[in-house]
Structures are given as structure tokens and as C-alpha cells.
Amino acid sequence: MNLGMISFWHVHAKDYANEAELHPDTSIKAIWDEDENRGREEAELRQVEYISELDDLLGMEEIDAVVVDSPTNTHKEIMIKAARAGKHIFTEKVLAATEEEALEILGAVKEAGVKLFVSLPRVYDGYTEAIQELIHSGQLGDITQTRIRLAHNGATADWLPQHFYHKEECQGGALIDLGCHPVYLTRLFQGMPNRVTTQFGYVTEKAVEDQAVVTFGYNNGSYGIAETGFVTAHSPFTIEIHGTKGTALYGFPDEILLKKVGSQWEEVAIPSDRPSPFAQWVEHIQRDQGTDENNALALDLTVLMEAAYLAENQKREVEIGGR
To answer: What is the CATH number of domain 122-274+304-319?
Structure first.
């Protein structure tokens, strides 16, 4: 399958390009970037053609699919163009900053009959599968609270690219980037909430938030907490799941899963990770399998992100109705 790389704006674009080069069934044929110098450097490094016009790349018959890592505010335009050009699409989260834009993208994808896959990698990690099994088995009882935290020091240690603090391009800061992972995992474990509140921090005084806490309220009285940030030097990725009968903990600080449903803590076996989102996308194309489950979760992530930023901007609790 011949690929076109559309932008190296996102920090994970190089990872996907490397994965495409290593995958036995994919090959990068051309690169376009809104930053021509960056695009030409990547094309030279990977010894492929640089295309100066996006429409020209999308018009290349030999290209079957594209990897979109452009600024968030360009996702709708680029992905709709790609779908209408008949190209399968792999993209970095978030799908879009608003539900309206996400629905437009999904509509174009459905109409064109191409496969869209959004990178939501922690959905497919072994600990996620193990936690879902604990929840669904009823061992923890009714879930009363979840808390998921993922943070790093990209802003304080200054290793994130400066354009990650550009509000218009990113459509937000730490929450819409790194915070996507705790948010979509909360959605996966507890379902869609009914209410959203937020607290943003601006430790480094950037134009966008460099840390954030989002709380999700449910009509059954339970709630979820998602935490993220770019200003924490040694913050392990952690998951807490609390229920009426037991608790599960992951990452405190070791990457092991513990449960307590009686008097003792027990370690829970973690299965192997499922294939990466990129590998799954390729397989879905090859087998002509639908990507509805991934797309639905990506849409819900956008809905939750939009609600969280509205809650912060208006300093109020936002009702999202639940799903």
C-alpha cells in the first residue's frame, strides 16, 4: 500500500513515518507539508518525492492512503479532501476540535467508502483490556469513581515544539493533546458522562493551558477524573478504578495492575498489547473491515473535548446529555 505523508507538524508524525517504513505492506511514496522546509527535509531524509501542492499529492493515482499529522485546525479541510480523493486516512488524535467538524469528516469518509482510523493507542494496550475485563466481570461492583492521569514535563523542560502552544493551530493545549488519553479511557471505562467541569493551569504562562483537570459527572452518582499536564517531571501514568465491591490500580508507580476485592491486594495478569493503531488501520484496509468502533470513540472524544473547553471558557458546568 502506497502512502502519502501529510505534514510532520505533530510530534508523533515521525513515529508513524518510521512505522510505515518498517511495515512489510506499506511504503511512503510522497510527502506534503504546510511548512515546505520541514517537508523537504523529511522527503530528503526518507528519499521520497516532496509535493509542493496538497491537491497534487491527493491526485496521485499510485497513492492509496494518507497519514494526516497536520495542525488540528486543518483536519477537517484536509481529511475531507483526502476522502473525496478516495484515499484511506490515518490520523493523530483529536479527529477535530468540534463535534460539527468531526461529523463532517465522518460523513465524507462514509460517502467515499474509505477507511479512517484515529490513533487512540492506549485503547489497545494490555492493561486496558485487563481493566475492562475486571469491570465487565462485576468483580469491582458498580463503578463509583475513576481517575486517570497522564503528564510529562514537555513545557518546563522545553522539549515540545513551540507550535504546540499556538492556540489557533492546536485548538487548545495540554488537554487537547496529551489529555486525550485519560479522556478517551474514561469514556471507555465509564461510558459517556452527563456533565463536564474543568480546571486549567498556566504554570509557564503560555497562550494555552499547560495542565488541566476534567471531571465527568454521571446521572447514577459516579464520576470520572482526567488529569494531564506538560509541567510534571516525574508523574507516572496511573489509573484508578473504584467500585462498590473493589478497586483496581495501575501504575503506582510500576506498570502492574493490582486489584483488591477482599482483604488482600492481588496482581492481575496483563495480556499482550493489541497491534498498534497504524497496523490495525492497514489490516482493516486489507480485509475491507469497518472502523466504526474506532470512529465512534474518536467522535465521543471530540464531543468531550469540546464540552471541556466550553466549560473552561464559560466557567461553568456543561451538560452534554450522555450517550
So the answer is: 3.30.360.10
